[in-house]
Design brief:
There is one protein chain. It contains 14 helices and 13 strands. The strands form three sheets. The chain has an eight-stranded mixed sheet, sandwiched between helices. By secondary structure, it is of the alpha/beta class. α3 crosses α11, α8 packs parallel to α9 and α12 runs parallel beside α14. About 40% of the residues lie in helices and about 15% in strands. Bound molecules: pyridoxal-5'-phosphate. The site of pyridoxal-5'-phosphate has 14 residues, from α6.
Length: about 425
């Protein structure tokens, strides 16, 4: 007979016991429980522009063809739908070729290097599995994408923050950290550099075009006993509403052995479809596929067939163009509200993003924005939610408690304005 005294977690793995609840899940729960709350926290996309018609047309075309429909409803392969893998490759290569004014990048990956997943988060998870052992580390922007930082922690590794300014990760700071690790004999524990190269999460900052080649060169220089990979997370690349696209880090990787490119249709099409993709160096593609084979032996095939139809029917590019206009308007709306409500307080700083979904607000250091602080509680009481900046920083950062990530993605323009007004009141009251 089972003992009544056996604790429910007895027998769980060390990983399960060590894992903390993801902060974003808690924030999302709060937003769902309190519908009147204006959540500027969640990275959800704009609701009104979700591609209902394009999805309908693509689904109709797919399902009206019984043979294609049956194929779509069957399991696919571990790596994913062949045609979509080619389309993804063509899409990324075309973006880079256009950004390099017609110069074709030196390395031209093939279909075997492309893996389709249920969202690009799965690419990141597969990489954590493929590259990291307990005690290893990944060099990241400081601040960085907190879901990635949590993922790294969940496998017993850690993120080391590299100083990052309004042009992204600083190459001098990265070079200094790599030199330090090499001198300390710990370079072998440094497995990757994680960079959101376009409109990062949480700041909306892009890595400057001039820094890209230097970053790839540094990763190559420090690939001594083992390869030091760059994980290029390009989740927000297509959500640019100002300026011209710039070549990816991948485009600077002549041998194609250093950069892993992670992309997604979640932000540029629909997160509910949740199709992501990775373009890997050849050897790494093989091991990632082996790991994925044991995990799920392929992500949902129907969704991949659907996205492939969206692309082949020419429905994708117009939708991306529409989104750029939508987010340009919403970003402008948030910035106007910040200019009107927060700038006059004279103590906060923020940048004007040229793409993506976020504005990063820096408050005076004496104001604590963390979930345990009074400011957060006050904001909740007034019905506005933000992501506390503390979640996004590495442990060694100095000032981690006076920032917030604001998203202009999901709320209507009216609610963005109202949310910022509430936030201004909270900040004013705490000054
Ligand atoms: C920087 C970044 N990378 C990756 C993802 C993952 O998106 P998905 O798994 O839906 O492709 C997100 C989602 O918010 C993100 O912000």
């Amino acid at each position: 007979m089972p003992s009544e005294h056996v604790k429910s977690e007895a027998g769980w793995s060390r990983r399960a016991l060590a894992v903390a609840d993801s902060p974003i899940s808690g924030l999302m729960r709060r937003a769902l429980e309190q519908p009147e709350l204006i959540s500027l926290a969640a990275g959800f996309v704009d609701q009104a522009s979700l591609p209902v018609e394009a999805t309908h047309s693509a689904a109709l075309a797919l399902l009206s063809d019984p043979e294609a429909a049956r194929a779509a409803l069957q399991y696919g392969s571990t790596a994913g739908h062949g045609e979509l893998r080619d389309q993804v490759l063509a899409l990324v290569l075309a973006q880079d070729a256009a950004a390099m004014s017609g110069v074709v990048p030196a390395s031209r990956p093939d279909r075997e290097q492309v893996v389709l997943t249920a969202g690009s988060n799965q690419i990141l998870a597969l990489l954590a599995d493929a590259l990291l052992d307990p005690g290893d580390c990944v060099l990241c922007d400081d601040p960085t994408y907190f879901v990635f930082a949590g993922l790294v922690q969940s496998v017993g590794a850690r993120c080391v923050g590299i100083a990052s300014d309004e042009h992204g990760m600083r190459s001098d700071a990265l070079a200094a950290e790599l030199a330090r690790q090499a001198a300390a004999g710990t370079l072998e524990r440094v497995k990757a550099i994680y960079v959101m190269s376009y409109f990062d999460n949480p700041r909306g900052v892009s890595l400057a075009a001039e820094r890209r080649a230097a970053l790839v060169a540094l990763a190559q220089e420090y690939s001594r006993k083992q390869r030091l990979y760059i994980i290029e997370d390009a989740a927000y690349r297509e959500l640019r509403f100002e300026g011209a696209d710039v070549p990816s880090l991948r485009a600077h990787d002549a041998s194609g052995e250093t950069v892993i490119y992670a992309g997604t249709f979640s932000k540029s099409f629909a997160p509910g479809v949740r199709v992501g993709y990775g373009i890997f160096p050849q050897a790494l593609a093989r091991v990632v596929l082996a790991l994925k084979g044991y995990r799920d032996f392929g992500s949902p095939h129907l969704n991949q067939c659907l996205v492939s139809r969206v692309l082949s029917l020419g429905l994708y590019a117009p939708h991306v163009a529409l989104l750029r206009a939508v987010y340009a308007r919403k970003a402008e709306c948030m910035l106007r509200a910040l200019d009107a409500e927060i700038a006059p307080l004279g103590v906060c700083r923020y940048q004007r993003p040229k793409g993506g979904l976020y504005v990063w607000l820096e408050l005076p250091q004496r104001l604590d924005t963390s979930e345990q602080g009074e400011l957060f509680a006050h904001a909740l009481a007034l019905g506005v939610l933000y992501v506390p900046g503390a979640y996004c920083f590495g442990a060694q950062s100095e000032d981690t408690r006076s920032h917030m990530r604001l998203s202009f993605g999901v709320q209507s323009e009216e609610r963005i304005g109202a949310g910022i007004a509430r936030l201004a009141r909270v900040i004013r009251d705490r000054l």
